């Protein structure tokens, strides 16, 4: 059995050694798809035996599917992992002991992903651990064609491993805010597309029914998207922080639930409103307004190459 990990990178010298170390006794090979890093990312990857390929970045869906096409045809399984994530020792053992013996009908494996924020593990608020499909048979899965909130899709059966994948980003809060400002642009595109339908997109129906990802997508598109803009961010934060006991995560937890559960969601709504104002004031169509306001060319669709 051949298991290859794919890591997408851009200036990840701080995180990459830890990620690669967690993969050392699990994977047969590692492919690093780099977006022309200016730090030591490439040197670190090559020094630890990873194969490095470089490709211009448009979004995660396009970059991952491009990387997938670069794999050796002899690959049996693929692991998608971010540079700031790592396998717990328990998950490494579970993959080694269970993966090879899975029935041929099983195309994918759901992993339990948990996140830290400002050095604290987030345990409350109903957000973590989240089940993510990160292990799949080569040739039987690919990344959804989306600008944001993309998932791996497989056609066959999936099972769940019980051990955890940890997302532990070590960058500053300023970096986190800048990243989520960019994410908010892409999230706004997805929200606007639900209303205007200007491009094809992976909707809730494209994810397997009954899965956590499918349920969350359905709630987002059918419930959250139909609530009043701006107010829904407040409702969501109160749900997480009070009803789902996010307050038990302490001071760092308050910062996380407020920033990610309210500020980020409110920012998305503000950007959606800004695009609509541009359309009303200029008479421009939705695609041109998105380009002018969010600087995203929605005519440049993510695709596998």
TrEMBL record:
InterPro entries: Glyco_trans_2-like (IPR001173), Nucleotide-diphossugar_trans (IPR029044)
CDD domains recorded: Beta4Glucosyltransferase (cd02511)
Domain Glycosyltransferase 2-like: 5-100
Keyword check for Ribonucleoprotein: no
Keywords from the named record: Transferase
Annotated signal sequence range: none
Coiled-coil region(s): none
Protein name: Glycosyltransferase family 2 protein
Naturally occurring in which organism (per UniProt): Wenzhouxiangella sediminis
């Amino acid at each position: 059995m051949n298991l290859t990990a794919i890591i997408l990178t851009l200036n990840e010298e701080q995180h990459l050694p830890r990620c690669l170390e967690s993969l050392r006794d699990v994977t047969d090979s590692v492919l690093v798809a780099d977006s022309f890093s200016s730090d030591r990312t490439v040197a670190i990857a090559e020094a630890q035996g990873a194969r490095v390929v470089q490709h211009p970045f448009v979004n995660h869906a396009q970059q991952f599917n491009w990387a997938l096409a670069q794999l050796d045809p002899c690959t049996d399984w693929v692991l998608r992992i971010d540079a700031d994530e790592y396998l717990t020792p328990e998950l490494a053992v579970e993959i080694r002991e269970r993966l090879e013996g899975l029935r041929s009908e099983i195309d994918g494996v759901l992993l339990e992903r948990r996140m830290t924020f400002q050095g604290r593990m987030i345990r409350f608020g109903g957000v973590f651990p989240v089940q993510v499909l990160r292990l799949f048979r080569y040739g039987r899965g690919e990344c959804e064609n989306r600008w944001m909130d993309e998932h791996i899709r497989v056609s066959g059966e999936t099972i769940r491993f019980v051990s955890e994948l940890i997302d532990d980003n070590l960058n500053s809060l300023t970096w986190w805010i800048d990243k989520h400002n960019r994410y908010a642009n892409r999230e706004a595109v997805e929200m606007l597309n639900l209303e205007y339908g200007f491009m094809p997109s992976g909707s809730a129906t494209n994810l397997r029914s009954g899965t956590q990802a499918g349920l969350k997508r359905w709630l987002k598109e059918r419930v959250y998207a139909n609530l009043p803009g701006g107010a829904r961010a407040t409702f969501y934060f109160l749900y997480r922080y009070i009803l789902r006991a996010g307050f038990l995560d302490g001071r760092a937890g308050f910062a996380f639930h407020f920033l990610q559960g309210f500020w980020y969601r409110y920012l998305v709504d503000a950007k959606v409103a800004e695009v609509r104002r541009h359309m009303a004031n200029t008479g421009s169509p939705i695609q041109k307004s998105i380009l002018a306001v969010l600087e995203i060319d929605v005519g440049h669709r993510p695709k596998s190459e």
